[in-house]
Amino acid sequence: DERRIELKHGAGGTAMRDLVNETLAANFSDPADALVCLADMDDGAVVPIGDANLVVTTDTHVIDPPFFPGGDIGRLAVSGTVNDLAVMGATDVRGLTSAVVVEANYPVANLERIADSMAATCAEADAPVVTGDTKVMGNGELDGVIVNTAGVGIAEHVTPDAGLSPNDVVIVTDSVGEHGISLLAEREGIEFGSDLESDVKPLNGLLAAALETAGEGVTAMKDPTRMGLAGALNELARKSGVGIEIREERVPVTSDVKGTGEMLGLDPFQIANEGVAVLGVAPTAAEDVLTALRDHPKGTNAAAIGKAIDDHRGRVVLDTGIGNRYLREPASEPAPRIC
Amino acid sequence: DERRIELKHGAGGTAMRDLVNETLAANFSDPADALVCLADMDDGAVVPIGDANLVVTTDTHVIDPPFFPGGDIGRLAVSGTVNDLAVMGATDVRGLTSAVVVEANYPVANLERIADSMAATCAEADAPVVTGDTKVMGNGELDGVIVNTAGVGIAEHVTPDAGLSPNDVVIVTDSVGEHGISLLAEREGIEFGSDLESDVKPLNGLLAAALETAGEGVTAMKDPTRMGLAGALNELARKSGVGIEIREERVPVTSDVKGTGEMLGLDPFQIANEGVAVLGVAPTAAEDVLTALRDHPKGTNAAAIGKAIDDHRGRVVLDTGIGNRYLREPASEPAPRIC
Ligand SMILES: Nc1ncnc2c1ncn2[C@@H]1O[C@H](COP(=O)(O)OP(=O)(O)OP(=O)(O)O)[C@@H](O)[C@H]1O
Ligand SMILES: Nc1ncnc2c1ncn2[C@@H]1O[C@H](COP(=O)(O)OP(=O)(O)OP(=O)(O)O)[C@@H](O)[C@H]1O
Ligand SMILES: [Mg+2]
Ligand SMILES: [Mg+2]
Ligand SMILES: [Mg+2]
Ligand SMILES: [Mg+2]
Ligand SMILES: [Mg+2]
Ligand SMILES: [Mg+2]
Question: Which fold has domain B161-326?
């Protein structure tokens, strides 16, 4: 085997999934009692602890630059893991871990900013860091700082990617693309008159409101991270064995994101978010969930963007207003290290 | 604040603890119901889930080289986290996470070896990886591959660092120093006629045997990792508010480790292990625990090396055979990236 790792292997798409299934997790075996496990490739795993559903998740955050308009690696690390728990149904976070790896010679003041941002985001999400780890690599052995956050939470009702049924309404909680587009714009050094910035944020409070309103009426949830909205919708469709029909005009995208995306040649549907969730909701509950989301300060832009259907299984059909096309999962990330 | 991160900040000793307390975790707040939390700086945190004590822990493994005599980064990553859970009393591992960060251009075949080694160690420890993450950094942005493993487990009886009482017997489960000394010898390019190699291994099965025998008679446990046996004993003494008296001649050290340590100027008491645990055991239970440990294939070298005492509080007194001296926590690791 002469193959080498390429950037696409870390992009969250097909190349990564193949590497995980064929190499990284090829010989792992799931515990017999896991409710959601490795084979499901969901946002986290679910293992029973007595009567409780314990959700477990992990993400390493390698974002470059670590400070960006609208956030930083600390806010991203807490939000990312809180959101993976929340979209599994675990809006009640019982503990986060903070594992920092930093390069020798890194400014302590920067670490301080990152840690303070983590603490503020933890307070915002009512999600405590309970334990951590700190490692230092030699100068030149690591580009700056990276942060792994794992997390555990309790889900009363588990909302897996595979939960969609035909006719379930598909809701997005916020406009898409701000995080990835603003980050790449910043990286390209593009100046805006506008205030385009990342909307990275923890969503467990918002999603708890949806779950309180509809309970099992919320059938599936996912955060559209590295592969963007297009990636998340395709995964939901594939795992649920349904088609998904999306009305393009209904997907909230700000004009700044649209404009900058066009300038950079980037599709806002195909770029990383970390402050947005996609929900599947039973048709009878959809109206109430949408109202509950919009009543929450983090859900004012929530929109019903389409629904699950019985044909086109495993695929996402985009109604562009003048006809239909398949919305495909992007082949790869447009740029590495944006989350 | 003009300070820069130095290698000592990742060494597990005073400099790291100060960085954690003053910077990395300065503004984190512990959940009200945590039984063991950040402030305790123990091997993991303990949060209640219904009636169960859930132990949560994390470690990033940055070892260099990733393949070494006796093991590799995969075996180390699983063992390290299983052992931090086990020394908190959570020998029943409910889930591990595997978060891999790898440099572009890294050989896929090496990742395969690492993942297979993780899988084999998971099977050995009956500790399933339930979820993971994969990120790729650009060529030159990371030196090879690092692995974060977090873990959750259930403790019937929690065994914190602070659990020692005067007269508790201090037991070590194996000879010390193999891991660190063999790794540094390898790194220095020293050739041996001997078969000196790391004894990295998961210990939850062994420690379960001790807990089954003595229950609450096992009062404290810790794994002597980055700061070696000296570091672990000093932490146990400090946190428990007792002194610890150790008989030097009773501490098992192989002659290979002794000889190579002398050649390299390294003290086997002050170097990293990952396959050794230190136990505090109530005097009435000590004999039975020692027998249970020795009856287990991973505990044949177990030895009672000393006891907790009422004076010299917070310190470790080493009886050298010709007198006493304080066994101090090493000021810093002898070398970075050995675990
Ligand atoms: N190294 C690995 N070992 C085992 N499983 C992995 C590994 N990497 C990823 N996975 C699994 O693959 C699935 C997809 O992972 P991915 O990281 O894309 O999900 P995510 O965390 O929701 O997304 P993101 O990382 O973009 O936030 C998850 O179920 C995850 O557990
Ligand atoms: N970045 C961090 N944020 C919060 N707490 C931290 C951080 N780094 C370390 N800690 C805490 O400091 C204590 C000591 O950590 P340390 O990593 O030395 O323990 P360990 O994992 O048992 O040892 P090792 O990493 O050598 O195996 C732990 O309680 C840990 O939770
Ligand atoms: Mg996710
Ligand atoms: Mg994620
Ligand atoms: Mg650690
Ligand atoms: Mg430990
Ligand atoms: Mg450890
Ligand atoms: Mg991930």
Answer: Phosphoribosyl-aminoimidazole Synthetase; Chain A, domain 2 (3.90.650)
